[in-house]
Design goal:
The protein is an alpha/beta fold. It is 31% helix and 27% strand. The chain contains 14 helices and 23 strands. Strand 10, helix 6 and strand 11 form a beta-alpha-beta unit. Helix 3 runs parallel beside helix 6. The two termini are 14 Å apart. It binds shikimate-3-phosphate. Shikimate-3-phosphate binds next to helix 6.
Length: 433
């Protein structure tokens, strides 16, 4: 089992680009495969989750050339061009891969089995299975169709009008994607503003996807989907670790290049700013309908805050590292309405609380979040990632603040989303081995 040892850090200084956005990359490969023609995707991150999507799409009969270190040429075969796969589609650890594929397999009218490793096999799939059944697909799975593996027979779907019980971009996307294959309108109403990369990318490709407040619709395109040509912007969820480190380690100045600044993704940025961090945006541009820019982060005296409601949805993947920031903020930080954390790669309420406590944090679990009292000096210890990439990296950030040495066990998982995390930390001046 891999481990990393992190020393308490001096100022972190430098300008770096974190890997391409995971959510956008999954979508670029999946949607590119449905376009008429060749899509060119640069800056594709070679993290485990995105590679899982790449292999699944290949198994659906799509040719994908890998040109250079991070460029893909996806030979799209049109909306109806997928072939029925003779082997299961292995989504490995990636919930996004499984849930988006579920919608597309249902729409494409083929039969496929979607499987994953032990971690993914514990994650809830009833949330996609149920609406897809309502649209007419047959979706079977363990525990009455609620857990992977899923066996899906798609085809002949009808549009639905569906109110999402939870704010989930994966479920929203699965339904909207299935809606591209029906003869009527599909309407999804979301309870909170989940990430909208599916809508933005499909619109950029010419698909009839419309957003009116919390209501999003999709229907069959009347013209072929246009191929993509994009450079994937840097992932805000990966940038979050370096941004938080810069905010917490005295004297640091870090610039993160080309980060996706989509409002549905920049919750952590907004929360840290509200807490007093010095965060600035420059070089703003737009890529494939997504706002992008450089972020420069410096420390500031942090004050505790409350995170609830819509802000939780906008920062859902960043809440583990926010917990680390909260240990250094003055006062009591409360995160609530975040029960979704319990069904991520791990039960992130339990694992974040258990591991940060080992470092001396004053943090308590709540049914739907956690409470942190700060500021607390952290002390180095041996901690465990539980195989959860975001927890592993959040613990590395905590290690940069802790007195003495922090060893994080089971760090291989960091490459699920952020290959090269350790190398970038070292480049910025951290002592990690
Ligand atoms: C994602 C949506 C979110 C997020 C995940 C990526 C996506 O999950 O936590 O890391 O790319 O659509 P949910 O849809 O389950 O909230």
């Amino acid at each position: 089992m891999n481990s990393l040892t992190v020393q308490r850090s001096e100022a972190l200084i430098g300008q770096v680009r974190v890997p391409g956005d995971k959510s956008i990359s999954h979508r670029a490969v999946l949607f590119g495969s449905l376009a008429d023609g060749v899509s060119r995707v640069r800056g594709f991150p070679r993290g485990g989750d995105c590679l899982a999507t790449l292999e699944c799409v290949r198994r659906l009969g799509i040719e994908i050339e890998e040109a250079g270190a991070d460029e893909l040429l996806i030979h799209g075969r049109g909306l109806h061009g997928w072939q029925e796969p003779s082997l299961p589609l292995d989504c490995v650890t990636s919930g996004t891969t499984m849930r988006l594929l579920a919608g597309l397999v249902a729409g494409a009218g083929i039969f496929a089995v979607l499987s994953g490793g032990p971690q993914l096999s514990r994650r809830p799939m009833g949330r996609v299975a149920e609406p897809l059944r309502k649209m007419g697909a047959i979706v079977l799975g363990r525990q009455r169709g609620t857990l992977p593996p899923l066996a899906i027979q798609g085809g002949n779907l009808r549009g639905i009008d569906y109110r999402l019980p939870i704010a989930s971009a994966q479920v929203k996307s699965a339904i909207l994607l299935a809606g591209l294959f029906t003869h009527d309108l599909t309407v999804v109403v979301e309870p909170g503003p989940s990430r909208d990369h599916t809508e933005r990318m499909l619109r950029a490709m010419g698909a009839p996807v419309h957003t009116l407040g919390a209501k999003i619709t999709s229907e069959a395109p009347t013209t072929p989907l246009q191929p993509l040509d994009l450079r994937v912007p840097a992932d805000m969820s990966s940038a979050a670790f370096l941004l938080t480190a810069a905010v917490l380690v005295p004297g640091s100045v870090i610039t993160l290049e080309d980060v996706v600044l989509n409002p549905t993704r920049r919750g952590l940025f907004d929360i840290l700013r509200r807490m007093g961090a010095d965060l600035r945006i420059s070089e703003e541009t737009e890529v494939c309908g997504e706002p992008v820019g450089h972020i420069t982060a410096r420390p500031g005296p942090l004050t505790a805050t409350t995170v609830a409601g819509e802000m939780v949805v906008r920062a859902i993947d960043e809440l583990p590292v926010l917990a680390v920031a909260a240990t250094q903020a003055h006062g009591i930080t409360t995160v609530r309405n975040a029960e979704e954390l319990r069904v991520k790669e791990t039960d992130r309420i339990s694992t974040v609380v258990a591991e940060l406590r080992k470092l001396g944090a004053h943090i308590e679990a709540q049914p739907d979040g956690f409470i942190v009292e700060g500021p607390t000096p952290l002390r180095g210890a041996v901690v465990d990632s539980h195989g959860d990439h975001r927890l592993a990296m959040a613990l590395c950030v905590a290690g940069l603040l802790a007195h003495g040495e922090t060893t994080i066990m089971d760090t291989e998982c960091m490459a699920d989303s952020f290959p090269g995390f350790e190398r970038l930390l070292v480049k910025l001046g951290a002592e990690v081995s």
